Model the fold of this input.
Amino acid sequence: MAAYGLYTHIASNKRRSVALLFGLFFLIYLMVFAGALLGEGYIRDNLPFDVIVALAWRDLIMALPYATAGTILWVLIAYRFHQTLIDAITGGREVTRQEEPRLYNLLENLCISRGIPMPKLKVMDSDALNAFATGLNEKQYSITVTTGLLKALNDKEVEAVLGHELTHIRNGDVRMLVIAVIIAGVVSFFAELFFRIFFNLGRSYSSSSSSSSSDSGDRKGGGAIVIILAIVLIGLAWLLSVVVRLALSRSREFLADAGSVELTKNPDAMISALRKIEGRGELPDATSAVMEMCIDNPREGFADLFATHPSVDRRAEALVKFAGGHDPGPLKRHSAEDDEPETVQKDVQDQLPPPDAGSKTAGPWNRPLPSGVAGGPMAGPWGARRG
Done:
């Protein structure tokens, strides 16, 4: 079903996310089957290929209840303790209105404007410019921002970042991404476990085969082919789990940017915030799973193939095209001092063009859209608004 507006895009993405998560559960069963192939291939390597595969299918059926129960237990543990683990990694601490009145009031105003329950607010001590949202339900949802971001961004830009993270929570992105990371963690765990077993069995097999070379010469079964097939399936399951995580993360950043503009009515603030954050969001002690949740992940993948976020250029281009914002372009940096929060704070403002008289009063929804964009003067950032 085609998606035409912001909310239909959100609904469409939720359906795709659910399908992808079901696919991740399938990957776990695929890993179990690969493990069965690996075991049967070593134990019964003198049997024909089809017989070994049939035995592996039998093992899979017997192991399904245990694999399901183990996965559910893993998810329940992560459900209960994932926020504690994230806080332990990042050093995030919950703050009150008295401790961070500026930040607290900005988030509270956004929540009140849309009748959204206010998530917990956390701050982590870091010079990096970044923010992320976590949680699986309303009691757990929280938004964490770095002290570097608070120093470098003005109120409008901080509000845009909070709107971005709040949109992730509203859209269910945070819940889906956390669950995907949990299940992908199961896949990675079993992949490493199977490869360790493979290498250990390989050493023992090679030593036993050298001591009984006459017997091994008579074996003409399909064990070797089954073992190769098992290794291929394990590698495929791991690769697909990574791709699914990237798909969940990448496709939602555009919607979160658009949702921030919808909340704040200020595309320029979102663009300038992204330009300030660009290349300055590295959290050295954070795991790759935490970085995937951040507003920007500077850890680029090979040839951008495994990058978890679309580039800031693409995100800014979308906000210019569909929300009528102005993009100052990447910040000019010449030395390490240019990354200091105070320097970053004024750099984007110096590069932003002064708004014309019309744009001072016209919000992003009333600016003329580019040719070819449906919706007319009252179109939302990603298409015609509903209701």
Summary: Residues 93-168+253-355 form a domain with the Zincin-like fold (CATH 3.30.2010.10).
